[in-house]
């Protein structure tokens, strides 16, 4: 196992999921509802907050009264744009991804809790009657990885198979509790040595087969693996390996 810092060396599928996993927000494109007769069928774009499910699918919390949710109720086909160009003096050199699919409500309580770990301020209104969680069923994506890197990828090249994420998803709560209770110093080393970020109080907020996410203050920081860790045994071995490596820094 190795930890890669240069996004450009990731293959298309890993880079695509990386952009979805590390983005707190995305631009949602929908087609205007038939209820708004003078604008029916015209494109509309909104800013939404997102989190990635374990398989890489985008998850959102949307209000029933919002324009985009009303559009989705008429036509669930839509697109999400994830922008990874922050920090590039020329945005055209940075990676971005357009994700096309259908957005549907999800009653998966584990996904609800996962979303709120990343967007904790949403807890104050997530229980309101007009708010619901939604998950995108991806059909295909268009990745632009910078100049001369543009490719269309089908769902099966992006979304992980259940056999690659189900075991890790089931174990997430236990792994988070264990690491945050018994290995706080290790989490700090991940943040300060591996990611080279400043901070004292680090916590593990989410894991998935591609890596894990740490919180320090209001910041969320990603450690991405270069291979899928689809079993709990493999995942724990990777965490132990990372722990040993950061102690050598």
Report on this structure.
The chain has 249 residues and is α+β, with helices and mostly antiparallel strands. The chain has helices spanning 12-22, 67-74, 109-118, 155-158, 162-182, 184-194, 232-246; strands at 25-31, 43-52, 58-63, 77-83, 96-105, 131-146, 149-154, 202-208, 211-216, 219-224. The strands form two sheets. A six-stranded antiparallel barrel has the order 1-2-3-6-5-4. A hairpin with a 2-residue loop joins β9 (211-216) and β10. The chain is globular and about 65 Å long. The model has no long low-confidence stretch (mean pLDDT 92).
List keywords for this structure.
alpha+beta; three-stranded antiparallel beta sheet; 7 helices
Give the helices and strands, then pairings.
Elements: H1 12-22, E1 25-31, E2 43-52, E3 58-63, H2 67-74, E4 77-83, E5 96-105, H3 109-118, E6 131-146, E7 149-154, H4 155-158, H5 162-182, H6 184-194, E8 202-208, E9 211-216, E10 219-224, H7 232-246
Antiparallel strand pairs: 1-2, 1-4, 2-3, 3-6, 4-5, 5-6, 6-7, 8-9, 9-10
In short:
By secondary structure, the chain is α+β, with helices and mostly antiparallel strands. It is built from seven helices and ten strands. It starts with 11 loop residues before the first helix and ends with a helix.
């Amino acid at each position: 196992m190795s930890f890669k810092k240069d996004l450009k060396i990731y293959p298309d599928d890993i880079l695509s999921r990386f952009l979805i996993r590390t983005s707190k927000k995305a631009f949602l494109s929908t087609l205007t509802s038939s209820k708004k007769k003078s604008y029916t069928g015209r494109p509309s774009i909104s800013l939404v907050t997102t989190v990635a499910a374990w398989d890489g699918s985008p998850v959102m919390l949307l209000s029933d009264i919002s324009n985009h949710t009303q559009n989705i109720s008429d036509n669930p086909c839509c697109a999400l744009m994830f922008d990874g160009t922050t920090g590039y003096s020329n945005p055209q050199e940075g990676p971005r991804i357009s994700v096309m699919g259908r957005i549907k409500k999800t009653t998966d309580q584990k996904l609800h809790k996962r979303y709120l770990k990343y967007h904790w301020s949403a807890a104050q209104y997530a229980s309101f009657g007009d708010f619901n969680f939604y998950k995108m069923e991806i059909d295909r994506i268009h990745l632009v990885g910078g100049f001369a890197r543009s490719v269309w990828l089908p769902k099966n090249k992006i979304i992980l198979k259940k056999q690659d994420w189900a075991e890790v998803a089931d174990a997430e709560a236990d792994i988070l509790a264990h690491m945050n209770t018994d290995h706080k110093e290790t989490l700090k080393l991940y943040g300060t040595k591996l990611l080279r970020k400043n901070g004292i109080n680090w916590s593990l907020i989410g894991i998935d087969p591609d890596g894990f996410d740490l919180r320090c203050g209001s910041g969320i920081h990603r450690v991405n693996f270069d291979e899928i860790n689809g079993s709990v045994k493999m995942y724990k071995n990777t965490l132990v390996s990372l722990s040993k490596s950061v102690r050598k820094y």
